[in-house]
Every structure is written in structure tokens, then in C-alpha cells.
Amino acid sequence: MHFSFPGRLSIGCIVLAMLAIAPGAQALEFRKYPALRSFTAEMTEKHGFSAKQLQRVFRCAAIRPDIIEAMERPRELLPWHEYRKIFVTEDSAKRGARFWQEHAEDISRAQERYGVLPEIIVAIIGVETRYGRNPGNHSILDALTTLTLEYPSRAAFFREELAEFLLLTRETDIDPCRVKGSYAGAMGLPQFMPSNYRRLAVDFDGDGKRNLLDNPVDAIGSVAHYLHNNGWETGAPVIEAARLEGTLYFWVEKLGLKPALSVRQLAGYGVFPRRRENPERRAALISLEGEDGPVYRLGYNNFYAITRYNLNKRYAMAVVELGELIRQRMEENPSS
């Protein structure tokens, strides 16, 4: 049985998309890429797509050198003290407080259902898209096609995401040529990759659709569900300032972001939480680049859950610190 994309995917849409190809982009030559032909054959065989329809879809795709360049210089490579200034700002905290106030009932419902702190839900949406103001202006089809065909180090990953994207657009009746998002193929207010959109997005407002593109209620519920699914522990700490003694902590730092040692074991390496904590709780030693030298924190399981959203300690720390600022603004002015 073969399926088609929505009727909206007309020749007119394809022509308009081709005319809108970004400067420096190259219109996709289907015959030039054997990998694209094999991908189309696989999508036809495994998922019932029409080969002719897929070829028409790829006519509106372009190879984008700027996407490859962006992949090579992500902001997460910046030192922490520079990265922090991008996201942990007074303006973002004020906007986050307003977003929380506007959606207080849904955020409270998400916390009750999934156990995730409200300020973390809000901060993730703030870091990802400025609370929906900046969801990205790259064609998702361009991004995933370019990265599948021209980014060999991660081509297998993006090939899977391209398949998930085409499945998602078919399921949601969206024109794949028109969806915009990040240079890496993430989309919507919470910037879910297509596979996570299909797997973890929730219909949180009960309208029968899982709409992350422009529905803040579904975004709120989906962010909370994502973290819950990745091990968020209700009522548990996220991060703590660390006090260091001696030099053995160097070995703990090498263990990575996943909590591996208990607070009791960490003490044997000269690593102590600033506040009293359950000695059996596991933590990881997180080091960040401060302006005047390294900054050390103990990251608990909930901090690790945030890194499952974006596999970077600077990202997770920005979410935590922005969340703290947002909560402060809410407590200072709860009804503004």
C-alpha cells in the first residue's frame, strides 16, 4: 500500500520553495546522490511512500553549505562565561516570568503529571527559542538532507532523522517543504528532533493534535514528558556548588556527566557539596570555564536528565541558572 503526502504539496509549493533557496545553496540533484536513491527505495519499501512523490519532495530541497559551517562551530563550544551571557540574561528572565504567568495552569499541570520543576520547563523553552519568538528559519528538509548527504561523520544519525521527519509530516499532514527550524533539524518551540517529536511529544491541551510548531501548551507538556522519560526525579536536587580539597578531584572530573559516585564516595576524593546532602545520592563533578578560572558544581541525576535534552554541560547549566532567575522574578512580582 502506498501513501501520499498532503494535497498541499503541489507543484506550486515546490516551485516557490525552489525560488526561495538561500544564497550559496545548491539545488539538489537527485541523480548525483546514490545514497538518496537508496534512501528513497528504503522509504518506499519499509514505510509505503511513493517513490515519485519523494522525488518531488526532494526537488524543493537544497544542499546548504552554511548548515555544514554551523555544525562545525556550535555555540556550545564557547567557554561557559561567554555562553552564559547569551542565555542567562535579565531580559530572558523577565520574558520567562511572563510566559510562566501566561501559562501558569498548564505549567502547574505539567509539574503535577511529570514532576519537573516549572522553572526548568520554562527555561528550556527560553534557551531553545526565546519562548517561541525564534524557532529557527532553516528549512528542516534542507538541513536534514544536507547533513545526510554532506556530513559524513554523522550521516547515519541524520539519515534516521530525515526518515523520521518524512514520517512525521505525513502523520501530521504538514508540507515537508515548508517546515522551518534549526540548522540541525530541530523544530518547534521546544526544538525537538523529528524522532523525539514522534516519540515524546504529547497532546497536552487535548485537541487531538501534538503540535509543537506553534502551540505553547503542547510544548510545555512535551518538555516535561521528555525530561520525565529521561530520568527526572521528582523532588530531587539538580545541582549544587562544590567545595574541593586536595588534588584527587581531578580523577572524578574525568568520569563525565553521568552521576557515578555517591556523595560519600566523592568525599574520599576531596569533593564536597556546599550544603548537606544525602550521602548515598550520586553526583558528577561538573567543571565550567569562569572568567577567573574553573567553576565547579555537583550535578545530580536531574542535571544529567537536562543534558539528555542537549548533550552539553554548558547548555544544562544555562537552563538551571536561567530557571533560577525566572523563579526569582516570579517571587518578586508574582502577578505582573
Roughly what fraction of the amino acids lie in strands? 5-15%
First-residue to last-residue Cα separation: 55 Å
The helix content, as a percent range, equals 40-55%
Rg estimate, integer Å: 22 Å
CATH structural architecture of the domain at 11-63 and 136-179: Orthogonal Bundle
Task: Describe this structure in a few short sentences.
The chain is α+β, with helices and mostly antiparallel strands and 336 residues long. The protein has helices spanning 11-19, 34-47, 51-59, 65-72, 80-87, 90-102, 104-114, 118-129, 140-150, 155-172, 194-200, 216-229, 249-253, 263-267, 301-307, 313-332, and strands at residues 26-27, 62-63, 138-139, 180-181, 239-244, 261-262, 271-273, 282-290, 293-299. It starts with 10 loop residues before the first helix and ends with a helix.
Describe the structure in your own words.
This protein is α+β, with helices and mostly antiparallel strands and 336 residues long. Among the domains are: 11-63 and 136-179, Bacterial muramidase (Helicase, Ruva Protein, domain 3, Orthogonal Bundle); 239-299, no CATH class. 51% of the residues lie in helices and 10% in strands. It contains 16 helices and nine strands. The strands form three sheets. Strands 6-8-9-5-7 form a five-stranded antiparallel beta sheet. Strands 1-2 form a two-stranded antiparallel ribbon. Helix 15 packs across helix 16 (313-332). The radius of gyration is 22 Å and the shape is globular. The chain starts with 10 loop residues before the first helix and ends with a helix. Residues 1-20 have low confidence and may be disordered.
